[in-house]
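FORM 12-B: Structure-to-Sequence Request
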């Protein structure tokens, strides 16, 4: 019987199963296995599973799967957790460069243990009425709300995610509210098909929208149900560059899956 050693991490409540797969023994095509491990009632419980792998020319490679067992697009909080995981294994010292599905990323472990992840540039923000659509490594829909605390994120998010326009490929849906200079964000994630406590690419997309629409200045302080994050960004020639997602990445427990 194969045994898999894993470590559970969370980044502001967005939780992940980490597997050191530098030997490449894990069968990434086994959708049922990944979904079973991520199951909250019958498995370890997580929003996703991440493999740490070797990659020539990089400190490591990130391979990310949603909780439905399917490989997915970039995950910001997952990337930050993987940086912390790789650091705990002495893969690098304080700074790293790694490869993810959307390209190169830089990472940094700060002196207080906080993790910074450099996101990809964003050159296109489209409007859907009063709402916004953009890609921050994963596609995101952003909608302002006046009653975020009362909103049913799962129900309202699913309505947009499964609408005729997005049902085929899916989209992550963020509801945001600006309150005394702090951006509050709640996210419905495709692949999880539920509200998550936090979403790194969603927080990044929301910060860009708040900068674009409300002139909110960098660094932008963000509050999610799982905790606080910061997004640093610069806009040059209509393109958002030098985007960094900053926040905690915490090891919860480790074990063996048989």
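FORM 12-B RESPONSE
SEQUENCE OUT:
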């Amino acid at each position: 019987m194969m045994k898999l050693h894993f470590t559970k991490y969370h980044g502001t409540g967005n939780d992940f199963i980490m597997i050191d797969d530098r030997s490449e023994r894990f069968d990434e095509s086994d959708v049922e296995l990944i979904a079973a491990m991520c199951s909250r009632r019958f498995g370890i419980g997580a929003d996703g599973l991440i493999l740490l792998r070797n990659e020539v020319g990089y400190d490591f490679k990130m391979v990310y799967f949603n909780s439905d067992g399917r490989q997915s697009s970039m995950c910001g909080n997952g990337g930050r957790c993987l940086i912390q995981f790789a650091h705990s294994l002495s893969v690098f010292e304080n700074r790293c460069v790694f490869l993810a599905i959307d390209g190169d990323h830089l990472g940094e472990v700060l002196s207080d243990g906080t993790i910074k992840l450099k996101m990809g540039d964003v050159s296109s923000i489209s409007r859907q009425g009063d709402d916004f659509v953009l890609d921050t490594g994963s596609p995101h829909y952003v909608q302002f709300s006046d009653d975020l605390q009362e909103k049913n994120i799962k129900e309202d998010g699913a309505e947009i995610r499964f609408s005729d326009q997005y049902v085929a490929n899916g989209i992550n849906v963020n509801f945001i509210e600006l309150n005394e200079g702090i951006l509050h964000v709640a996210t419905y994630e495709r692949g999880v098909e539920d509200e998550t406590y936090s979403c790194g690419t969603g927080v990044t997309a929301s910060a860009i929208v708040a900068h674009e629409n409300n002139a909110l200045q960098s660094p932008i302080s963000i509050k999610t149900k799982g905790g606080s994050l910061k997004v640093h960004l610069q806009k040059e020639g209509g393109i958002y560059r030098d985007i960094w997602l900053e926040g905690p990445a915490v090891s919860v427990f480790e074990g063996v899956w048989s």
